[in-house]
Amino acid sequence: MARGRKPRTWVKMDCEGILRGSINYLLPLDGQAVWMKMIALSEVSGGRPGWIEDNNHNGLPYDYIAHELHCTTELLELVIKKMAEDKAIEVNGTGSIRLVNFEHYQFSEYDRQRLYRQRQKEQDSAKVGVKKIYGEFKNVFLLEDEYLKLVERFKESGVKERIEKLSMYLESKGDKYKSHYATILTWDRRDVDEKKEKATTGFKPKKYEVVN
User: Fold this and answer.
1) Could you tell me if residue 17 is left (phi over 0), alpha (psi between -120 and 50 degrees) or otherwise beta?
2) What CATH number is given to the structural domain containing 40?
3) Residues 49 and 85 in one domain
4) Tens digits of per-residue pLDDT, 178-207?
5) Could you tell me if 102 and 42 are in contact, meaning their C-beta atoms sit under 8 angstroms apart?
6) Continuous segment of H or E residues that includes residue 199
7) Which of 17, 26, 193, 203 is the 20 to 30 A CA-CA neighbour of 106?
8) What is the distance, to the nearest Å, from the Cα of residue 151 to the centroid of all Cα atoms in its chain?
9) Is there a single domain that holds both residue 98 and residue 37?
10) Mind listing the pLDDT tens digit for each residue in 102-131?
11) Separation between Cα atoms, residue 82 and residue 180, nearest integer Å
């Protein structure tokens, strides 16, 4: 049984290969049946899809494999020999049997990238809730996505300026805020409103004399 992954209960078959491929002249009919079963066995044995081996990546005894495939050891050895000559399988130093084109036929590009996506998801999950420290006084805390949003809005220089402003304020006043991200946005909104108010109240419309 495979370890570390859940093996599928099915495998894909290349219809053209089965009907017109090299196995038809390389192997007798019972050998072709053994080859089909070897494809299935490589999905559920060991921990790597496409390999016939034990959980420690060591080869299985041929008599054990033959028993699993319900064939004679001699027939199994013939299939392995012929398919190795056809470069369809490889047998490594530990005796593990690798079906060379297994992943090509069994997995789409989406499947092949599944492990990458899973690792990426785990990395992204690990970032959730982990805030980085910013500011001269090391007292401004922002999530990575919060920092990126600020950069998108104010650019890098603008973000650093606002972080330092908040850092100095927190150090001097000792105030605490639940969200430094929200605080930066609130302060920016306040500054914008104050500028608008000054612009409005500071504007004196020119008086024109009325000429009769």
Assistant:
1) alpha
2) 1.10.10.10
3) yes
4) 999 999 999 999 999 888 888 777 655 544
5) yes
6) helix 180-201
7) 26
8) 26
9) yes
10) 987 787 655 657 667 777 776 766 566 688
11) 68
